[in-house]
Design a protein that fits this description.
The complex is a heterodimer.
Chain A: E1 4-10, H1 14-25, E2 30-33, H2 53-59, H3 63-74, E3 78-80, E4 83-91, E5 93-100, E6 106-117, E7 121-123, E8 136-138, H4 139-149, E9 156-162, H5 166-175, E10 179-185, H6 201-215, E11 220-222, E12 224-230, E13 237-243, E14 249-256, E15 259-264, E16 266-268, H7 271-276, E17 280-282, E18 288-290, E19 303-305, H8 315-332, H9 341-360, E20 376-378, E21 383-384, H10 385-394, H11 399-406, H12 419-425, E22 441-442, H13 443-448
Chain B: E1 4-7, H1 11-22, E2 27-31, E3 46-47, H2 56-75, E4 79-80, E5 84-88, H3 91-104, E6 109-112, H4 116-119, E7 129-133, E8 137-139, H5 141-155, E9 161-165, E10 169-175, E11 178-184, E12 187-190, E13 193-196, H6 202-208, E14 216-225, E15 236-239, H7 240-246, E16 254-261, E17 267-273, H8 284-297, E18 305-316, E19 323-326, E20 333-337, H9 343-358
Parallel strand pairs in B: 1-2, 1-13, 2-9, 5-15, 13-20
Antiparallel strand pairs in B: 3-8, 4-8, 5-7, 6-7, 10-11, 11-12, 14-17, 14-18, 15-16, 16-17, 19-20
Classes of the chains: A alpha/beta, B alpha+beta.
Chain lengths: 456, 380
């Protein structure tokens, strides 16, 4: 007969692994599901077998700690890697619908009494002229290349965007041998330098990266952005602009390079909580996040969320939230869980800091002026800005209605890249994604699925 | 002061506004959301005559069919007169299907089992036969609604048709019994008449005026595949069970295969019907059933990926007929809502007829079957 776990955790990043482990230690029967072949999520993407551990340590702060948790979890929980979740639903128990494997994927269903959603976040690129040229990468994409296979993303690299995440990306690229020509931060450098939370480890870490870049004579400029990428078949140079406080270009110059790694923050992945009807709220940067209480409980009974889905805040906060969630699940299922006030204080402190970061590195509206009528806003469906403007003139008022009239977000990535930009172009904060199918699934597989969960 | 305020910028509201402006009236359309953001933006764009039993709804559909073709010709939006193929799985279904076709008096061709492949080469073997309806068509419904409002504004004079999005109606202005305009969250709008084209929310709007119009949501899901470059499916193809489901009284989940390609490449797979209120949470069993039925009809689809699914709420009335015309219980208030799954197809005829009423003309069709006060109080 079917096994029903006490807890299913989706996402093997810092939040999911810490949550699963905490729940295991409290005596729960736990299953952990992740799409990737290796654990770690975006933060701790493991290096391939055989690469030196010394370098791993250099690239990953906190990796040792994560590796210990992963090992401990492996002894106690069921771990299903390489499982892409395309839907979650409540059918008596909570049911997680997965596709197992890559090419020869097959459907698999997991059932549990409770669910912890720790699906993280992905990069938020903004469109600008030339962003679709080969050689232009998201900052997260460049870092994933580095962490995943130690490929140096390019020889002459420019890093641009906003937020402290640009610094470890630039430092990692420089350490791996790339010639990093500059880091262009659209907001002020070290926006938190005067902030009372300066003592928190994250800024120290950021300043540490800053020092590392300074040693290598990599310029780090505030109020600067890459506003255009040039090249015939691939990137050859970029236009760097000095910006005013609203991100309107004040002066420009060109810079030759073959790689641009850029990012304007992150988009929490909310497909699964939205499928279940979990309430969302607008985070401090306007991005929708799952609304949770102090125990990381969502508005839907039995469903918990931790990590970036509840607000982007980095690996340390994600791990702490995961632990809180795992313990809350155990307590709610009747296990004895001793209080741990230090953990709650840690979450409070880290989330206050994360909030301050989001406020210090917002996306300001001037970026819209970098675009031209023919600049693609949606790369999948090749929708230019002019088509988006036409849709707005026809009476669209939000990303969804622009999509219905002009097709941005209708393609393969389903708006993961462009939906925030389209919402801002429509003059509103981004809305939570409505995607009853979170991952592409073959009609034949969907047709052949059984209605009752198979053995877990 | 406008002559008419239309509540709702979906396909039906857009058509009401277009024809009212054409009739010389000044029109303001208000919608609490964007243009075409409700049920219009969650459908497939069906313009069907094939699924209507003889009677008032078929009359409406036939009037609409001609109007759609006229609008597409003059106002330029995506309209595909591709025809519909209804297929029967059993001899008994086929008999019912051909019986319906004979009674409709609509142009059609009976298709024998061995001829089905000429219409749809990838159709599954073993079907009993079908009926082809050349007049069935498809529009891109959001673009059609938005374009109607835009063209109306351009063609019938500056100021004749205005769209105000993000304006929510919160109540009605009254002069004695008479409805003299709407209260909104952006101020009052006085008008000669008000048209309730709020679709599945039409009952809630009517309640603001103190009248009952029993419109409830009937949820449907649609699956969308990855783009398929080669033309795998040529027509709108659906099973005889669809006709039965459309007319069904059941609250339970009903599904039947409706499969068609779109000009941009993806194939759309419907159709499900269930009464679950305005619940948007994903129902995997519904998606599975839709997939199963589509693959049974077109085995070639089994290897294609679904990249998207969406759900919407059809506005249904207990007798499956829309509500069109003046409301005698609240003079000045008119309704044009409750079209269930046929709102896109029936929009032009609805708008045309309501514009005739608003302009004081005799409508081309008898509106008595659609009158707003036809429902018995508290049906159950």
């Amino acid at each position: 007969m079917s096994a029903v776990y006490d807890l299913a955790v989706i996402g093997a990043g810092p939040a999911g692994v810490a949550g699963a482990l905490s729940a295991c230690l409290a005596g729960l029967d736990v299953v952990l599901v992740d799409a990737a072949a290796r654990p770690g999520g975006q933060y701790f993407r493991h290096l391939p077998e055989g690469f030196g551990a010394r370098r791993q340590g250099a690239l990953h702060h906190g990796l040792d700690r994560f590796a210990r948790q992963w090992e401990a979890l492996g002894e106690r929980a069921t771990v299903l890697l390489g499982h892409r979740v395309w839907a979650v639903e409540r059918a008596g128990t909570l049911v997680v619908r997965c596709l197992e494997g890559d090419r020869e994927e097959r459907p698999r269903t997991v059932a549990a009494r409770t669910l912890l959603i720790a699906t993280g976040a992905h990069d938020r690129p903004l469109p600008f002229p030339g962003w679709d040229l080969p050689g232009v990468l998201t900052a997260g994409g460049a870092q994933a290349l580095l962490k995943g296979d130690l490929v140096v993303a390019g020889h002459e690299v420019v890093v641009a965007g906003t937020g402290p995440f640009l610094l470890p990306v630039a430092a990692g690229l420089a350490e791996a041998g790339a010639d990093v020509l500059g880091v262009y931060e659209a907001n002020s450098r070290f926006g938190l330098a005067g902030h009372p939370l300066l003592a928190a480890s994250r800024v120290a870490e950021a300043l540490g990266y800053g020092a590392s870049l300074a040693r290598r004579r990599v310029p780090y400029r505030g109020r600067h952005a890459v506003v255009e990428a040039h090249g015939e078949d691939r990137l050859t140079h970029v236009t760097v602009a000095r910006l005013d406080a609203h991100w309107r270009p004040v002066a420009t110059r060109t810079l030759e390079c073959d790689t641009l790694a850029y990012g304007y923050g992150f988009v929490p992945q909310l497909e699964l909580p939205v499928q279940l009807g979990c309430e969302t709220r607008h985070g401090l940067d306007g991005a929708p996040v799952v609304a949770v209480d102090a125990g990381m409980r969502t508005s839907v009974p039995g469903v918990y969320a931790a990590g970036e889905t509840t607000g982007v805040g980095g690996a340390a906060l994600a791990e702490a939230e995961g632990r809180v969630a795992g313990r809350a699940v155990a307590a709610d299922l009747g296990r004895r869980v001793p209080p741990l006030p230090a953990l709650s204080r840690r979450v409070d402190r880290l989330s206050a800091f994360a909030g301050a970061l989001l406020e210090a590195y917002p996306v300001r509206p001037g970026w819209q002026g970098w675009l031209r009528g023919d600049t693609l806003v949606c790369r999948c469906e090749e929708v230019p800005l002019s088509a988006v403007r036409e849709a707005l003139e026809l009476g669209a008022t939000d990303a969804r209605s622009v999509k219905l009239l002009a097709r941005p977000g209708m393609g393969w990535c389903q708006g993961r890249m462009c939906s925030h930009a389209v919402a801002w172009l429509a003059g509103e904060d981004p809305a939570p994604p409505r995607r009853p199918i979170a991952q592409p699934v073959r009609l034949g597989d969907l047709a052949a699925m059984t209605e009752s969960p198979e053995e877990g | 002061m406008p002559d008419v305020v239309v509540i709702g910028a979906g396909a039906v509201g857009a058509a009401c506004a277009y024809y009212a402006a054409r009739a010389g009236l000044d029109v303001v359309v208000v919608d609490r959301g964007p243009v075409a953001g409700g049920t219009t933006g969650a459908g497939e764009g069906n313009v069907l005559v094939s699924d209507k039993a003889p009677g008032p709804e078929l009359d409406l559909a036939l009037l609409s069919d001609g109007l759609w073709r006229d609008l597409a010709e003059h106002d330029g939006f995506e309209f595909e007169p591709k025809g519909g193929l209804v297929v029967a799985e059993t001899a008994r279904d086929l008999e019912a299907l051909t019986g319906l076709a004979a009674g409709q008096g609509v142009e059609h061709t009976a298709v024998a089992a061995r001829e089905l492949g000429e219409y749809e080469p990838h159709l599954a073997r073993g079907l009993a036969g079908g009926v082809f309806y050349p007049r069935d068509a498809q529009v891109q419904p959001m673009l059609a609604a938005a374009t109607l409002i835009r063209r109306g504004a351009e063609r019938f004079g500056r100021g004749a048709l205005m769209l105000r999005t993000g304006v929510a109606v919160t109540g009605f202005l009254r002069g004695g019994d008479r409805v003299t305009g709407v209260r909104t969250d952006h101020g009052d709008i006085l008008a000669g008449a008000v048209a309730n084209a709020a679709g599945v929310w039409g009952g809630q709007v009517a309640a603001l005026a103190g009248v009952r119009v029993p419109i409830l949501p009937r949820r449907g899901f649609v699956l969308v595949t990855e783009p398929i470059p080669e033309p795998v499916i040529r027509h709108k193809v659906y099973t005889a069970a669809y006709v039965a489901n459309v007319a069904s009284e059941s609250e339970e989940l009903e599904t039947s295969a409706v499969v068609e390609a779109t000009p941009s490449g993806p194939v759309l797979v419907g159709a499900s019907r269930e009464r679950v209120g305005f619940d948007r949470t994903t129902s995997v069993p519904v998606l599975e059933r839709l997939a199963r039925q589509a693959v049974a009809l077109f085995p070639v689809l089994a290897g294609r990926r679904v990249i998207r699914a969406y759900c919407g709420f059809r506005p249904y009335c207990p007798d499956h007929l829309p509500v069109i015309g003046a409301d005698p219980r609240a003079p000045g208030l008119h309704h044009a809502c409750g079209h269930e799954g046929a709102g896109i197809g029936l929009a032009p005829a609805t708008g045309h007829l309501l514009a005739q009423v608003l302009a004081g003309l005799t409508p081309d069709l008898d509106l008595r079957p659609f009158r707003p006060d036809r429902f018995k109080e508290e049906r159950r």
